[in-house]
Amino acid sequence: MINKIKQLLQKRKIFGWKIEVISSKSTDLYFTKNLESESELIGDRFSIEIVVYKDYGEEIGESSFSIVEFNEKSINKMIDDALVICDYSRKPKFSLPTKSELKSKPKKLILVDKKLISPLKNLRKIANGIRTNLKKYNVKPNNLELQGSYLKLNVINSNGVDLKEEKTSFYVELTLTTAKKADGKVQEQEFVAMKEHASLSQFNAKEFVKENVNIVEDVLNSDLINSFKGNVVLTDDAAADFFAPHLGLSPLVMHASAKIKQMGLCVYSPKKKIANFKGDKISISTNPLLKLNPTSSLFDGDGVISKKVKLIEKGIFKNWFASKQYADYLGITATGALGAVEVNGGKKSMKNLKQTLPLVEIVSFSSFVPNSISGDFSAEIRLGYISEKNKAGKIIRKPFKGGMFIGNMFKIIENMWLSKEIIEVKGYRGPKIALFKNAIVAGMK
Amino acid sequence: MSHNCTTKYINFPSWCVTMNKKEVLGVKQFFLKLVRIMTKNNNYADVLLIKENSLTISKDNVDINIDNGMDFGVKLRLFDGEQFHVFGMSGLDKPRLEKEAVKLSKIKALNKIRLNICKKKINKHFLVKGKLDPGKISIRKKAETVNKLQKQILGGKIINARVLYMEEQELKIFVNQYKQLSQNINSCFLMTLPFIKAIDGNTRYNYKSFFSSGYEVTKIPLQKIKKLINTTYKIAKAKKLTPGKYTCILSPHLSGLLAHESFGHGMESDTLYKDRAKAKEFLGKQIAPKFVSIIDNPAFPARNGSFFFDDEGVMASPTYLIKKGIVKAPITDMYSASRLCMEGINVKRSANARAESYDHKSYARMSNTYFAPGKAKLSKMIKSIKDGLYLHNSSGGMEDPKGWHVQIQGVVAEKIKNGKLTGELFYEIGMTGYLPTILKNIKAVSDKLIVPGTGRCGKGHKEWVRVSEGGPHLLIKEVDLA
To answer: Which DSSP string corresponds to B401-446?
Structure first.
């Protein structure tokens, strides 16, 4: 089918074309309360995106369309329509990746776990593992979702690029509820734990259950918090959310985009510091080549080979990340897929960073979604701890829930210290904790 | 510069044609055959086809893109009395679907859970179209309109502007033992996003989006564009708000988001059945003043979350989540509604089972969610405030059905002083609080209902479906803002 589409495109004497073939097989298991099985879903998805580029001298017209089934007559018509549409989508010319640019292809990048290619039995085993481990604890599982997927990608273009990639991913979401009696009433709290990996070997049911049982018990015993200004530490997932939010890009990364630069929205200048650092000077890279990280990728959607790119080094802006189009506009080299956000660790240990009291430690946000252009953020806290000395000088650490961590990313990093201990999760490799001085938590008491 | 001038103008490109009547009837007959195969062992079975064609034109200072998307596939579903077995695949590959139906037909019936199935027989096709059929407008005209609008926004201190136009044709065909339903829904969406340099040196943006079932969505009065630009200028000067409790008027967009994030998610039947929603304790109880009602209504005419039947073949009608302050009925999907009934909670099926796509699960999901209008006049509500805020719009929120904590972020607020809007704005505010307290603090509900929402809603961080939210203006005391 692909060869036939190639022939149809080659028949037209146009500036260029690209075919992106995506096929994925997914297996999803859903369990309702008490982990009763509710649904088993097998998905088989296939699509082809075709992009045509038409020459207009100093400009190029670009248009794309998708198909899921092959019909020669209809694809011919779609190509003709797309070429007409190019007349109305003209932009400054850029080049398409060429075969000769593929020399920098990384030798090996492991992104597949064979156990996830057809994972039904393995996912059922994981569900049983979670069930068994939960028996030790006085918590109620109210929801479990396990998803395994196997993705195959092929990018082909008119310049001889023909790249293939296979990836697997595993997603687990477990909701735990716990209860206590207070003032004659039963009080319940829940915590939704989520993890995504590229391999089942990265998941340990026993540790996952234990860690999240501890969290939900703390959520149950949490109180509201007064407004607070001072030392705030983000730990593990909260630190990962801060530097690599689950929806969209961190403003710190977004402003290193060649597209944002070209759009005139960028606040960074090459070789200039991005903030007036009083603490650790941040170093950020994008790294699409991390082994078994679900965000890793050998190449981007245009067929440009991926590489690690140093965006910010010791607080100084270094490089843009760029698609082929925007790389050509800025006269730089295209950088390929974005991958995980990699942040360098600091010099101090976690223990050291947590020493100054009073201290607010945030371990989970409801949803950390900063404004990726302005850098402003306000995120509700699902679980945090406040540590302070009581009158007897003893350190008391109490859990809290609610309240909002507020600020501006470009401002708050001026007073930031990073741990030397590193974690790696989906889309993030960096300090396990980040300490912010003079940070604000708006309380609800 | 060379210019290959073309004389060919196309209206709807070839990929935007979904299916004609004859093809739809043929698919229904084929699906009926699949249902018969799958119900051999007396299991429940249904088949759903989803075909979405879209055309997107996006333009900013640097780039213009005209793209189309297609999502097309079929889902086979069988319930064995204990759980669903589902198979979803791209396209309409009849031999493969028949083979998979035969595989599913071998599953034995367990009869542990009795599904709540509507047995009324309906065989019908539904169609929604706007005043101006986008299929009759050439792509050149559409591109020109987007270009013109972008240029109207640019200029002065606006450093860039993005305009996004999107039209979508959605075809759904649902067949089970009782229903043979099909619907064709057309929708058009326009978003404007001007960027400006702010007083703090950072870049900020404003946005305004519009929705309609037809191409009339692009007919934006110049006055509205001027207002958008004017507000963007004010956003550039906007300060950060001092965290605290404020008396607020919520715009229809914000009141809708409050209804959606804070209450709607907690009234989804799967969340209730899993004991994940505090609302379960409040069913039949007073939670808000008597003048407060919240409705989810997929049958609301021509909105972003409107449809005729859901992904389990239930016909659309409104559901009162709160009626006169009392927590009433959840929005449902088949499985969890049946389980709730087995627990003795009598739940009526509503048309809210929705899936992101053919290879995703159908859950209870919202559609168009809004506060019902009240009797107060907006002008009087503003006049009654000595010192407070008018909350314009926001970038989104997150649900917490168990804790009933509220998170809405990216709010733009305008100061109200001595009963008058001052024009002074505050940018990127977060709204939080405990939902029952917020509902109790509602002091007035305005008389005009607007359902402007154009977004997508996720279940947690995934499973995105089109929704709309809105309502009248709400006056609420002691809102936590930061």
So the answer is: TTTTEEEEEEEEEEEEETTEEEEEEEEEEEEEEEHHHHHHTEEEEB
On whether the CB atoms of residues A225 and A400 are closer than 8 A, the answer is: yes
Q: Please confirm whether the linkage preceding B252 is cis (ω < 30° from 0).
A: no
* A292 and A426 assigned to the same domain: yes
Q: What's the domain range around A75? A: 2-220
Task: Say whether residue A78 is in contact with chain B using an 8 A CB cutoff.
Answer: yes
Per-residue pLDDT of B297-349, as tens digits, reads 999 998 999 999 999 999 999 999 999 999 999 999 999 999 999 999 999 99
Q: Into how many domains does chain A fold? A: 2
> What CATH number is given to the structural domain containing A173?
3.30.2290.10
Beta strands, E only, B141-238:
158-176, 179-197, 203-205, 208-212
In tens, the pLDDT along B157-170 reads: 999 999 999 999 99
How far is residue A79's CA from residue A81's CA, in Å, rounded to a whole number? 5
Chain B residues with beta carbon closer than 8 angstroms to that of A188: 275, 402
Cα separation values, A228 from A225, A304, B262, Å: 8, 47, 25
Q: How far is the alpha carbon of B434 from chain A, nearest alpha carbon, in Å? A: 9
Band (pLDDT 50/70/90 cuts) for residue B201 is confident
- Which letter, b or e, does each residue of A208-220 get, where b requires 16 or more Cβ atoms within 10 Å of its Cβ? bbeebbebbbbbb
Nearest residue on chain A to B87, alpha-carbon basis:
A42
Q: How high is the pLDDT of residue B13?
A: 57
Task: Report CB contact under 8 Å: B274, A33.
Answer: yes
- pLDDT of residue B406 exceeding 90: no
pTM of the model: 0.94
For B306-347, give the DSSP string.
Answer: --SB-TT-PBP--EEEEETTEE---B--HHHHHHHHHTT---
Both tokens assigned to A406:
């507020």
Q: For residue B83, what is the nearest residue in chain A, using CA coordinates?
A: A38
Measure in Å the smallest separation between the Cα of B429 and chain A Cα atoms.
7
Structural domains of chain B sorted by starting position, each given as residue range(s) with its CATH number in brackets: 14-237 (3.30.2290.10), 244-481 (no CATH)
Touching B: A residues 244-303, CB under 8 Å? 246-247, 259, 262-267
DSSP helix/strand/coil, B381 = helix
The most distant pair of C-alpha atoms in chain B lies apart, rounded to whole Å, by 75
Instruction: Write down the pLDDT at residue B440.
Output: 96
Domain co-membership, A48 together with A90: yes
Q: Which residue did the predictor score with more confidence, B105 or B5?
A: B105
pLDDT at B1: 33
The string of pLDDT tens digits covering residues A386-445 is 999 998 989 999 999 999 999 999 999 999 999 999 999 999 999 999 999 999 999 877
Q: In B, which residues are within 8 Å of A84 by CB distance? A: 6, 8-10, 139
Q: Decide if B10 and A58 are in contact by the 8 Å CB cutoff.
A: no
The ipTM (two decimal places) reads: 0.93
* Residues A299, A165 within the same domain: no
Q: State the Cα torsion B376-B377-B383-B385 to the nearest 10°.
A: 40
Is the same domain home to A169 and A304?
no
Q: Which of residues 191-250 of A touch B (CB under 8 A)?
A: 192, 194, 227, 246-247
**A299, B98 Cβ separation under 8 angstroms:** no
> Which amino acid is located at A80 in the chain?
D
Domain boundary among A220, A236, A253: A220
Window 396-425 of A: residues touching B by CB (8 A cutoff) are: 401-404, 406, 408, 410
Which of A220, A255, A281 is the last residue in one of the domains? A220
For B161, name the nearest residue in chain A, comparing CA atoms only. A263
